[in-house]
Write a structure and sequence with these properties.
This protein has helices at about 1-5, 15-40, 125-155, 160-175, 180-200, 205-235, 235-245, 250-280, 290-300, 305-335; strands at about 55-65, 70-75, 80-85, 90-95, 110, 115-125. Helix 8 runs antiparallel to helix 10. It is extended and about 95 Å long. The longest helix is centred in the last third of the chain and has 32 residues, at about 305-335. The chain has 10 helices and 6 strands. The two termini are about 35 Å apart. It is an alpha+beta fold and about 325 residues long. Strand 3 and strand 4 form a beta hairpin. It has 2 domains: about 60-120, RNA polymerase II/Efflux pump adaptor protein, barrel-sandwich hybrid domain (OB fold (Dihydrolipoamide Acetyltransferase, E2P)), CATH 2.40.50.100; about 125-335, MetI-like (MetI-like fold, Orthogonal Bundle), CATH 1.10.3720.10. The relative contact order is 0.10. One of its GO terms (molecular function) is transmembrane transporter activity. It is a multi-pass membrane protein. It holds the Pfam family BPD_transp_1. It is found in: Cell inner membrane; Cell membrane.
Length: about 325
């Protein structure tokens, strides 16, 4: 029987090699087809401009604050001290990079005239948006896990108040669109809270935190159902056995039930959080410059929709793929224990 299984048709190395070859041929054919389609469009591709949306060198003009003449330019290493002396013998000194000086000695300058240029490297709009997306997603994931865990436990609680509260929250959040919830958080709750804070001269809450709250509460409702299903998937005898050994219900839930449930809910949790990372693209509607809004602003100023939207999609793919790999790493670690 073992010999028969080894000679089973279509399951050897040749079988695997053949279908891998088919996959790569299909992949390269799709990529070539996409490239060919882009060449048929009457569009000038400017991929060389893309790095400027990540990091660029900005020129900052250093202007004169007084009217007068340039009385001296003294070099100090890579910089130079430019002295402007006015009619009343008042003087101002400006430290400017030597390569950025735009005046000479004895030149006459007026208020607002450019004396020199300072060059600084700054993050571009795409990189800024990517950082905001990472920040929002990371914070929202943490709060969603905490909220979902406690709500999931309340959902299966014997306490009617906790159970009904959890059911109400879950059904209310899952039954309404995320975009509508963002509008409510920003335009309704945000306005009310900030107006109350303004009355007491307290700093107002930035829109970013209302966006994080909307994402965390939305994802928390789904996490709660995933947690509930994971806990209920553990056989009831596990709890009964733990209780028969003298463990309290809290101790048994923490050390017996939840570790087993977590192994089972990890894949659906990963899927939920990957969806939440992509859902963060909706935050642009409440004036948060995340990755999608940053890309939209870049497109409106550069008129390069194809390159920038391809880049935006690629960055979301990198984020979600990296998170997926991290979850797979956690799964392997838990299996080894």
């Amino acid at each position: 029987m073992s010999g028969t299984s080894l000679r089973a048709p279509g399951k050897g190395r040749n079988y695997e090699l053949f279908w891998k070859t088919v996959f790569f041929i299909g992949l390269f054919t799709t990529m070539f087809g996409l490239y060919w389609a882009t060449q048929q469009v009457d569009y000038v591709w400017r991929w060389e401009r893309i790095p400027n949306y990540f990091y660029y060198q900005d020129e900052i003009n250093i202007n004169s604050d007084i009217e007068g003449s340039i009385t001296s330019i003294k070099e100090q290493g890579n910089n130079a001290i430019v002295t402007v002396t006015g009619e009343n013998h008042e003087s101002e000194q400006y430290e400017i990079p030597a390569s950025g000086i735009r005046v000479y000695e004895d030149d006459t300058v007026f208020v607002g005239d450019t004396i020199g240029v300072l060059k600084e490297w700054k993050p571009g709009v795409i990189l800024d948006g990517l950082f905001v997306t990472l920040k929002v997603s990371a914070i929202a994931i943490v709060f969603a896990i905490i909220l979902g865990l406690f709500t999931g436990l309340a959902r299966i609680s014997q306490n009617p108040a906790l159970k009904l509260s959890a059911i109400t929250y879950i059904e209310l959040i899952r039954g309404t669109p995320l975009l509508v919830q963002m509008f409510i958080w920003y335009f309704v709750l945000g306005t009310l809270v900030n107006n109350m804070l303004a009355k007491y001269d307290i700093s107002q809450i930035p829109p970013l935190w209302f966006g994080i709250a909307s994402l965390a509460i939305f994802a928390g409702a789904y996490v709660a159902e995933i947690v509930r299903a994971g806990i209920q998937s553990v056989h009831r005898g596990q709890m009964e056995a733990a209780r028969s050994l003298g463990m309290s219900k809290y101790y048994a839930m923490k050390h017996i039930i939840l570790p087993q449930a977590f192994r089972r809910i990890l894949p659906p949790l990963a899927g939920q959080f990957i969806s939440m990372i992509k859902d963060s693209s909706l935050l642009g509607v409440i004036a948060i410059r995340e990755l999608t809004k940053g890309t939209r602003e870049a497109v409106s100023t550069s008129l390069q929709p194809f390159e920038l939207w391809f880049l935006c999609a690629l960055l979301y793919l990198v984020l979600t793929f990296a998170f997926s790999m991290f979850v797979q790493y956690l799964e392997k670690k838990m299996v080894q224990r």
